[in-house]
Model the fold of this input.
Amino acid sequence: MLNVGKIEEGIVLDHIEAGKAMLIYHYLKLDRTEYPVAIIKNARSEAMTRKDILKVECDPDSLNLDVIAFMAPSVTVNVIKGGEIVEKRQLHLPEEITGVLKCHNPRCITSIEQELPHIFYLSDHTRQIYRCRYCEERYTAGVLEKRYR
Done:
């Protein structure tokens, strides 16, 4: 059995669909920080059969949880302080996300004006559809891109 030590302050992202922890790691830009990170892939789970887990030792408010809410809305965020879970956050789809997706419409203004931020708004709550603020290109929540921004 794998044993990963507890963290004193930070977050634990639990119930990540197996194989998606590295995408979340890159989208949270954890590769550009000096936070200690533990990535557990394909852990046994009664509810999911297999799951991934991310443990990040950092200020819990320093990470953009909207990224996680868009990419994997079923993830549970456990906030850790003093080595104990002090809060469990259930994520909700954000009304607007910036800098998470890149619009792939070649006619979108973001293709020409490279400095414009890529902004998407939630256009359909039930079907979890986001649209580009500039060209209305459609994206579905939870669908992860294979490329990193």
Observations:
- The longest helix spans residues 21-27.
- The domain at 9-90 is CATH 3.30.70.140 (Alpha-Beta Plaits).
- The chain has a mean pLDDT of 87.
